[in-house]
Amino acid sequence: MTDTIEKLRTELLTAVSDAAELTTLEDVRVAALGKKGRITGMMKELGAMAPEERKAAGQRLNVLKDEVAAALDAKKTAFESAALNARLASESMDVSLPVRPETKGSLHPISQTTAEIAAIFGEMGFEVADGPDIEDDFHNFTALNFPPGHPAREMHDTFFLPPDSDGQRYLLRTHTSPVQIRTMMSKKPPIRVIIPGRTYRCDYDMTHTPMFHQVELLVIDTETNMSHLRGCLQEFVRTFFGIDDLTTRFRPSFFPFTEPSAEMDIGCSRQGGELKLGNYGDWLEILGCGMVHPNVIKACGLDPDVYQGFAAGMGIERIAMLKYGIPDLRTFFESDLRWLRHYGFAALDVPSVTGGLAR
After folding, report:
1. Of residues 43 and 315, which shows the higher confidence score?
2. What is the distance in angstroms between the CA of the first residue and the CA of the last residue of the chain?
3. C-alpha torsion sign, points 59, 60, 62, 67
4. Contact between 182 and 139 (Cβ < 8 Å)
């Protein structure tokens, strides 16, 4: 049987070597190792042999089986590599060609406006702070001088989450002010931060959406006063809108977390039904601000007799709409590529005060 096995070895390895394609190679595999293959058939004949002869023939057949299987795998790999190389050659492209205009990406106005805000306040020495979107009642309300049951809590249409096993009720933050609390509780004054991020309220119309973006600024030290607040915000709006003589005014208002509180207006014109920013005698409300309430400072573990500061907050979509002439807030979130191509920005158009902000 030794001569028969050696002859079979030569025939099968030659057949593997001569196979010109994968289908032919598969036929060789089935003829050799399939259920009715030649090696399989010889393995079945071992039972009729004497023990010593069966042992020697079995060893030779196993060696032959492994050798043929290895040859088949090597040949198959060679075929697959050749097919892949041919495909890569046929699908090659010239990477030096310019990008097709219809596939050019754009930076969303929210991202661009946030970067512009950070660039302006960064020149004033502000850092960027961040916090979680899901908050507890303490950080979102209580520490910000909203006592339980206080009517001021009704100012915010809140998305509450189901209570946990301990009865603790969480919510989607209604403003970025909870990050003010987290910053004051974790960072030693002096503090100078801006806080951009998503906020959530139950509202939806042309000027409101259930999720929107705010940016707040917070300054805590021992000497800050209302004149610093006014100068900081006035410099911001003039730089952001690119109007050197943009007029501003501050009107008394109420916010639980600031005292005194104010709303800031900027000059504008509405003649002919067109809104135009500048020193034209009319006014447009743009943000809320004030001196941080002593109760808020105390809730964060600081001494209100030593530390004071100011805070302000504005909607990022709102100032983006004013600057870039976007008429409907809802379009920011509709994922319309035509809108994004019109209002979007080049990815490398990084805003800076010295290099210029987008217009």
Report:
1. 315
2. 90
3. positive
4. yes
User: Residue 57: which H helix or E strand, with range?
Assistant: helix 51-90
**Which whole-number Å values give the CA distances from 280 to 248, 262, 277, in the listed order?**
11, 22, 8
pTM: 0.67
Q: From CA 325, how far away is CA 315, in angstroms rounded?
A: 15
One domain, residues 278 and 337: yes
**Which H helix or E strand runs over 7?**
helix 2-18
Q: What is the pLDDT of residues 42-101, one digit of tens each?
A: 888 877 788 888 788 888 888 888 888 888 899 899 988 988 888 888 887 777 877 666
The structure tokens listed for 157 are 């249409």
Answer whether residue 209 shows pLDDT above 90.
Answer: no
Instruction: Name the nearest CA neighbour of 114 among 11, 46, 195, 173.
Output: 195
CA dihedral over 271, 275, 280, 286, signed as positive or negative: positive
Assigned token pair, 273: 């039904």
> Counting beta carbons within 10 angstroms of the beta carbon of residue 10, is it exposed (0 to 12), middle (13 to 18) or buried (19 or more)?
exposed
Of 135-149, 231-245, 306-320, the one with minimum mean pLDDT is: 135-149
Question: What CATH code is carried by the domain that includes residue 321?
Answer: 3.30.930.10
115 token code pair: 């970067």
Number of domains in the chain: 2
Residues 161 and 66 in one domain: no
Q: What angle do CA 54, 58, 59 make, to 5 degrees?
A: 125
More confident residue, 34 or 195: 195
